[in-house]
Structures are given as C-alpha cells and as structure tokens.
Amino acid sequence: MQSYWCRLYKALPWFGMGAIAFYLIGILGSQYQQEHQSWPQYPAEVLSSNIKWAAHMSDHYELSILLRVYPDNGAPSYQAGLLQAGPKGALEKRVDSIYATGSRITVRSNPENPGYVELVSSNSWGAYLIGAIVSLFFIINGITLLNKQTEQN
Fold this sequence. Notes:
The chain has helices spanning 4-37, 88-97, 125-147; strands at residues 41-53, 61-69, 78-86, 104-109, 117-119. It is of the alpha+beta class. It is elongated and about 70 Å long. The model has no long low-confidence stretch (mean pLDDT 84).
C-alpha cells in the first residue's frame, strides 16, 4: 500500500489546480464584472439583428445586434454592436422576445470607447459559482487520489 505522504504528494497538484481555477475564474472574473459595473447605463434601440453560422465554431450560430445608444449626458446618439453565440433556435427566440427591431434595451457603455457596449448584468456571483464548480472538479480528483488504497505488486 502507498503511504499517506506519497498519496498526498500526488494529490497536492490537484488541490493547487483547484485553487488556481477558483482564483482565475471566480475572483478575477468577478473583478472584471465589478469594473464594468461602473460603466454608465444608457438606453439603446435595436436597429437590426442578424443570425449567421459562426464559422469558427462547430455547431453554433452568431447573433449580431446593431444598436443606437442614447446617452443621458446630452451627447449625440451613436451606433454600437453586440455579439452573442449559441444554438440557432435559442438565438431566434432571443431575437423574437428581446432583440426585435425597434425594441429598447439597457446597455453599459465603455467611457473610453463608447462603441463598445455590454448588456447590463444583474449580479456578480455567477463568476464565483462557476469558479467553485470548476475548482471542485480538481479538488475531488485530489481527494480521490488521497483516499485511494492501492496494492503494490
């Protein structure tokens, strides 16, 4: 049987990868979202939406949305675009329900590059949740190695 210390030696990299995954996805991802939460919110009107096959993806389509953004600070309106990827049916439902031509949505606009906009997200805990799920995969693999009882031949 392998000693506890030998098994721990094999399991430690998995624990480390779990911690790194949580840091990269959860903490840095949440910081990215919080930075963008400070961007001003503006109303925008959907001018057009187009679904096309995304050549760089195997089975997904790309939804491109052209918007007219109306800043609240008296600045002139400007055009911006959004991109989303996914299955064709899901994108068609989004176009019918949310991004129909003429509909109004709220976007966050980058103050340094007004043409770059993002949809308003309601929370920042999603990055922590995804980071926790991915890191649990690594940690469970490490625990499995740590608790594994193997016989030496």
